[in-house]
Design brief:
This protein is of the alpha/beta class. It contains 12 helices and 9 strands.
């Protein structure tokens, strides 16, 4: 049996694939009717260990708009809590055409993909958030007037799954990335090594240094799901990494949401004319519709 094509991280696609996906996402957004029957009769299983708003709604609405159907599965209400990931995933993949899995651990996603006989999409884990980066890159392409190779994104804060995927996606397309994180909270080494190899990544400690020359400033929560017990420690470590109006200047502001106003960003910035967070959120829908159609074509 031919192995299915999975989307666990951006390393699962080539630069050509990524460019094709983004072009397709732009077309899906511009002419949704053209794709209204792209996935007629197809079913997507959506398996969630973690809570979700944007991931669930964008995938479910996206499948409907492509002519398909989506099934929501709360991990706690399934027998994934009783059986092995391997056994349950083999069964699940015999019922559906694709699976989206939003998990706590990357190892769970990898194990699920190894067992699945249909394409498996990583909806988020502790290392990667590739679907978010597809939407981010689509948004950057829409907003920048420069060639991507002359565009710079500054990421301020925790070197988390969003940061990791952003580095890889930007580096694949030649977008410069400048990351500012406190000591001990930097990005995943595999992402850093790739960004540096592509000569697209520079690392800093001070946010003011990272945003120099940037066109976009991106941040994310300091306390990801699963890190709640480290809240006070993290609030202290990131106390100088808040994105304020003064720090942002006249750059575009990005955030994958949900945001915590008063922590990683001020309410003033979230509501400012420079904020493009809701365009980002909407683009999750278009980017994921393109991804689904591309994987199941």
């Amino acid at each position: 049996m031919k192995k299915p094509r999975h989307f666990l991280s951006l390393f699962d696609v080539s630069q050509k694939d990524l460019s094709e996906l983004l072009a397709m996402a732009a077309m899906v957004k511009k002419k949704p009717g053209k794709f209204a029957h792209a996935l007629d009769g197809k079913t997507l299983a959506m398996l969630f260990q973690k809570t979700s708003t944007r991931t669930r709604v964008s995938f479910e609405a996206g499948m409907t708009q492509l002519g398909g159907h989506a099934i929501f599965l709360d991990w706690r209400a399934t027998n994934f809590t009783l059986g092995s990931i391997k056994d349950e995933m083999i069964c699940l993949s015999r019922y559906v055409d694709a699976i989206m899995f939003r998990a706590y651990k990357n190892t769970d996603v990898v194990e699920a993909a190894e067992a699945s006989t249909v394409p498996l999409i990583n909806g988020l884990d502790n290392l990667w958030h590739p679907c978010q980066t597809l939407a981010d890159l689509l948004t950057i392409k829409e907003k920048t007037v420069k060639p991507l190779q002359k565009t710079t994104v500054a990421f301020v804060g925790d070197g988390n799954n969003v940061c990791n995927s952003l580095i890889v996606g930007c580096a694949m397309l030649g977008v410069k990335v400048r990351v500012a994180s406190p000591e001990g909270y930097g990005a995943y080494r595999k992402a850093v090594e790739f960004g540096e190899k592509k000569n697209c990544l520079k690392m800093f400690n001070a946010p003011s240094d990272a945003i120099e020359g940037a066109d976009f400033v991106y941040t994310d929560t300091w306390i990801s799901m699963g890190d709640e017990d480290k809240r006070m420690e993290r609030l202290h470590a990131f106390r100088d990494y808040k994105v304020t109006a003064q720090l942002l200047g006249d750059r575009f502001f990005m955030h994958c949401l949900p945001a915590h106003a008063g922590e990683e960003v001020t309410r003033e910035v979230l509501d400012s004319k420079n904020s493009i967070i809701y365009e980002q959120a909407e683009n999750r829908l278009h980017a994921q519709k393109a991804l689904l159609a591309w994987l199941l074509k």
